[in-house]
Amino acid sequence: VHRIEMVKAAISSYERYSLSMVDMEAGGDSYTYRTLEMLKEQYPDDAFYFIMGADSLLTIEKWVHPEKIFANASILAAVRDDCDIDELTVQQRKLVKIYDADIRLLHMKAIDISSTYIREHFYDEKKAQDMLPKETAAYIKAHGLYGSK
User: Are 14 and 8 in contact (CB under 8 A)?
Assistant: First the structure.
């Protein structure tokens, strides 16, 4: 429940954002392919983009039904400075050929942020609180999440 409320807080100031509860409502194991199929069923005219770290692109064929993921969404793989771009490009080409996938590599700077760091240092370092939207930080404080000082 708290995670849902934290997401609601995080997106509250963005009029065009909405929280989907499709995974929660479906129950059972949550698999990416299943979530995408349910979203596609609810919004058949919409295009979906699945954002992942580039490292996940290297292992996506081990996921449950990767062919259904590729059929229902374009993949946006976030490539950080420490990634092997040649390896990723080879994988991208392979997946496009095998699955007729739409895969785009997004080059970006690495962001030094960690959920573990935020949870462990939320009350003793202002930096940890500043890594979150102010509404989410306020929710965490109001509900005493992640322990306290």
Answer: no
**Cβ atoms 136, 19 nearer than 8 A:** no
Residue 42 structure tokens: 């609810």
What is the 8-class DSSP label of residue 100?
A: -
Residue 51 carries which side chain, given as an amino acid letter?
Answer: I
Instruction: State the Cα–Cα distance between residues 46 and 39, nearest whole angstrom.
Output: 9
Residues composing the chain: 149
Residue labelled with tokens 């990634």: 83
The predicted pLDDT at position 149 comes to 54
- Whole-model pTM? 0.82
Distance CA(115)–CA(130), nearest Å, equals 12
Cα-atom radius of gyration of the chain, to the nearest Å?
A: 18
* % of the chain with per-residue pLDDT over 70: 99
101 Cβ contact partners less than 8 Å away, ≥ 6 residues apart: 70, 75, 95
In three-state secondary structure terms, 147 is: coil
Number of other residues whose CB lies within 10 A of the CB of residue 124 = 10
Q: What is the pLDDT of residues 107-138, one digit of tens each?
A: 888 778 888 999 999 998 889 999 999 999 99
- Cα 118 vs. chain centroid, distance in angstroms? 17
